[in-house]
Amino acid sequence: MQQGTFNFFKEVSSVDRIQMLEEKITKVIDKMKALTDENSVLKGRNSRLQEELDSKDAELRAVKQELQHIDMLRTDIDKLNSEREKVRSQVETLIKELESVEL
């Protein structure tokens, strides 16, 4: 009879092990679900950040183009200032020549 009782405890022990394994599997599944949900959230956030980055890149390209345009305008202004100085010098020279001529 003791032998039968011993087998019963072995069986209970096996059932307990199966239940523990079942609990562990359930926890793993729950963790996987949580990680899957978190992954979805992070993918959405990543997409939004990528869109924002693309937008900022477009803004940066536009600003760079504006800066190039400003540099071209500065170059043009420098050329015009130089030409103005030449013309001023030439006009001053002509005025001096006219003043030196007696009419």
Short structural description:
The chain is built from 1 helix and no strands.
H-E string: H
Using DSSP, what is the number of strands?
0
Percent range of helical residues: over 70%
Unreliable stretches covering 5 or more consecutive residues:
none
Task: Return the structural class.
Answer: mainly alpha
Q: Tell me the strand percentage band.
A: under 5%
Mean pLDDT: 91
Q: Can you tell me the overall shape?
A: rod-shaped
The number of distinct helices, counting runs of at least 4 residues, comes to 1
Distance between the termini: 151 Å
Biggest sheet character: none
Rg, Å, rounded: 44 Å
Per-chain topology:
Elements: H1 2-100
Keywords:
103 residues, mainly alpha, 1 helix
General description of the model:
The chain is an all-alpha fold and 103 residues long. The protein has one helix at 2-100.
